[in-house]
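Protein: Phosphotransferase family protein
Species: Antarcticimicrobium sediminis
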Amino acid sequence: MSNTAQTLDLDAVDAYLRAHLPGYKGPLEATKFDVGQSNPTFLLSTPAHKYVLRRKPPGVLLKSAHAVDREFRVQKALENSKVPVAKMHLLCEDDSVIGSAFYVMDFLDGRNFADPTMEGEDNATRAGVIDEMNRVLAELHMVDIDAVGLSDYGPPGNYIERQLGRWSKQYRASETEVIPEMDTLMERLAATIPPEDGQRTLVHGDFRIDNMIFAKGSTDCLAMLDWELSTIGHPYADLAAVIMQWQMPPGGEGRGLDGIDRAALGLPSDEAFIASYCERRGLPGIDNFGFYLSFCFFRMAAIIQGVLKRALDGNASNPERARQLGRHVPQFAAHGLAALDKG
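Structure follows.
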């Protein structure tokens, strides 16, 4: 079988797992998940066990993108922490096996919510799931990075400045047309970076409800997924990422809460969610939250621009979905400017 973003060389994977994964026994079947725009993700099924394989996509990639080795390392480091993660089994960095690096982890038989409205759930479940999101987020930012061996997982200090530089370069590298709102947003963010406040924590980089697996029949989180953008950085970027998604339109495209009567659904306001997070972390409050929110809109715009570029180049995991996402870059940039204006 050829190796593309859509397929997997089952014979090669089977041989590798037989040699490197204790207890593994075939025969092996694989099914590609629809999720995982960046790193193609497959369900591996054997008669006795189910695993998940995440691989780098084939082809020419942007520098530092699709870092499955980092995803593996951070989840392995968190396996005994209060941050729920799947059990990591192995990392293969030998491109000759299936054409790109990959890792294998346990499959978790839980449930996943596509968006924060959690259609079909009762108010108590919605409130419980969002509170569990809040708990996991706070616990993530309270992980002792030295104790879990992640003190070198990101450069020291200046996280926001470095992120702005990184994603500005990534955006320019994948730019397909001039978007004035993005140009203005990058200029304004660079000119208004808040002073360092001494907070240096593990950050997920894409913290949202659809990157979480919850237990069936309860609101407990079984695992936080999709750690590709994780690093050592500033915790408010993760918190703002949650609020950013909630300000998007509801439904399949935005998966947000804009215009939704949250109280009627048992969902907290932005302010209540931030207050709960601050209480869990022992913080008095957050100054200039609008900057961090604007930064998240900018970063997401840069990410989906990269997804669009891969679709146009023929390397996207889900090409049609990638093209749909790409049309929203100007919208995210406009939201970023509005958040800066609001402060």
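Remarks: The radius of gyration is 20 Å.
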